[in-house]
Amino acid sequence: MARTRKGHQAEANAHVPLPTRDGVAPSYLWLTETRAGGMLRFLAERFPDVPESAWARRLARGEIVDAKGVALGADSHVRQGMRIWYYRELEEPETPIPFQEQVLYQDEHLLVADKPHFLPTIPTGRFLHETLLVRLKKRFGLPHLVPIHRLDRETAGVVIFSHNPESRGAYQSMFQKRVVRKVYEALARPLEGSPLVGRDFPFTYRSRMQDAEQFFVSAEVPGEPNSETLIELIEQRGEVAHYRLHPHTGRKHQLRLHLSALGAPILNDAFYPVALPCKGDDFSAPLQLLARSIAFEDPLSGEPRRFESGFRLDWP
Questions:
Q1: Which of 39, 53, 277, 283 lies at a C-alpha separation of 20 to 30 Å from 312?
Q2: What is the DSSP code (8-state) at residue 35?
Q3: CB 243 within 8 A of CB 232
Q4: CA dist 288 to 50, 51, 115, Å?
């Protein structure tokens, strides 16, 4: 058994024995039991999707180390309480994502970026270098860059990063205390036909959300609401409406699920109301959801701050 931490989390630690490499921070693994057979066998069993030959090459290059930075070999002991460090690598080449992020603001504490559709916020799955975090690390040489919040790969808009570990906690606490004012926009069907509405705009929709059987989506279930969204109508053109959404909570896929539950799934949503087959690297139909703006009082200076996306949604 082992517990894994991704590279962007690992950077918060006082001592990281491997440097950031080409914008990618090392990941680490806590070992929770002693195992026989050596390090190569352990890694091959722990990560079955990675060929054993790939782990053998990394060990031979000295790219897997212990907490003191000592390179581990194929026959190194696997002991409970060890922490090993390594770089995440992809066995297959990444498909370039042909959309460019923009930087809206930067100071000694924060970097605020405008993320395009299809670009993941952080490394995950088959995405490593083609992610907003790694792109920005390479571009600005900020080894301590960490997103304070995240957007889905399919969603475009404003993302706030911290690059100063000393002040990071103050900015993270804003999101934990829910004092950040986030505004989204979406294109979806009109709501007039929904039996759940029957009221004028704006209105607040609440429901209880939890992870669905398919791990990558969420579902509504009976019970005390744990998600809340204020919904405004900006404009309607025929069978498409333009909504402004104010999430008062931050559940996974909250806005996508709430509009779908109201009978108005967001245009080009491949997850709601029904999860469709993966479109792979098809960039032709972006989800029409945009994190339009984020506003807050700066916890260090007390000054009001507001950042707005330059992207626009696409009317059909």
A1: 277
A2: B
A3: yes
A4: 35, 38, 14
Residue 184 has a CB neighbour count (10 Å cut-off) of 22
Contact 313, 290 (CB under 8 A): yes
Element (DSSP H or E) covering residue 160: strand 156-162
Nearest by Cα to 143 from 19, 284, 264: 19
Q: Which CB contacts under 8 angstroms, 24+ apart, belong to 265-271?
A: 265/188, 265/189, 266/186, 266/187, 266/188, 267/187, 267/188, 267/240, 267/316, 269/154, 270/154, 271/216, 271/217
Phi and psi (nearest 5°) for 250? -130, 50
Residue given tokens 């309607």 in the structure block:
236
* Chain CA centroid to CA 13, Å: 20
d(CA 108, CA 103): 14
The stretches of 11-148 forming alpha helices (DSSP H) are 38-46, 52-60, 132-140
Number of residues written out for the chain: 316
Q: Report the candidate in 6, 8, 4, 5 with the shortest Cα–Cα distance to residue 168.
A: 8
Model pLDDT for residues 39-83, shown as the tens digit of each residue = 999 999 999 989 999 999 999 999 999 999 999 999 999 999 999
**Three-point CA angle 305, 306, 309, nearest 5°:** 150
Query: By three-state DSSP, how is residue 169 classified?
Result: helix
Per-residue confidence at 310, pLDDT binned at 50, 70, 90?
very high
Q: Which of 131, 147, 118 is nearest to 270 (CA)?
A: 118
